[in-house]
Amino acid sequence: MKIDTVCIIDDDPIFVYGTKVILNSNGKFCSTITVFENGQEALDDLEALLKSNQELPEVIFLDLNMPIMDGWDFLDEFCKIPDIESKTRVYILSSSIFSGDIEKSKEYSIVKDFISKPLTDIKFEHLLKEIENERIGRTA
């Protein structure tokens, strides 16, 4: 299964590198990976894509703790975009072990899952199966 585009919103270059390695391993995931260091950069770029009638990334990996605009503020603004849930899916990738963060993530219907860092092959395979099952459900 392949997904064309992925967006990583995270300010940790080591984590971003590791995530890219997982995404590109065995050529199994995506052809384009876009990276932003904070939510504001990502929001500006994603809104520009929409204004120019371009497609959003199919998957967004979102960290919670970042400078300028954190993950929660990004979600609050991003979810204001009409019909956004049909255009992309968000997975929170966070080092937070605070159960309140996991519960809060469930308040956002666009968030498909809360994944503890780091992204591993096993976690990634599970995520791919979820996406594939969702795609099958849409076409059935």
Summarize the structure.
The modification 4-aspartylphosphate is found at residue 63. The protein has 140 residues and is α/β, with parallel strands linked by helices.
Name the CATH superfamily classification.
Response regulator
What is the average per-residue confidence, as pLDDT, rounded to a whole number? 88
Instruction: Please write the string of helix (H) and strand (E) elements.
Output: EHEHEHEHEH
- Overall helicity: 40-55%
Domain Response regulatory: 5-132
Keywords: Phosphoprotein
Protein name: Transcriptional regulator
Pfam families: Response_reg (PF00072)
What would you note in describing this structure?
The chain is of the alpha/beta class and 140 residues long. It has a single domain (5-139), classed as Rossmann fold, CATH 3.40.50.2300. Helix content is 42%, strand content 19%. It has five helices and five strands; from the N terminus they run βαβαβαβαβα. It has a five-stranded parallel beta sheet with strand order 2-1-3-4-5. The longest helix is centred in the last third of the chain and has 19 residues, at 121-139. The model has no long low-confidence stretch (mean pLDDT 88). This is Transcriptional regulator. Keywords: Phosphoprotein. It holds the Pfam family Response_reg. Residues 5-132 form the Response regulatory domain.
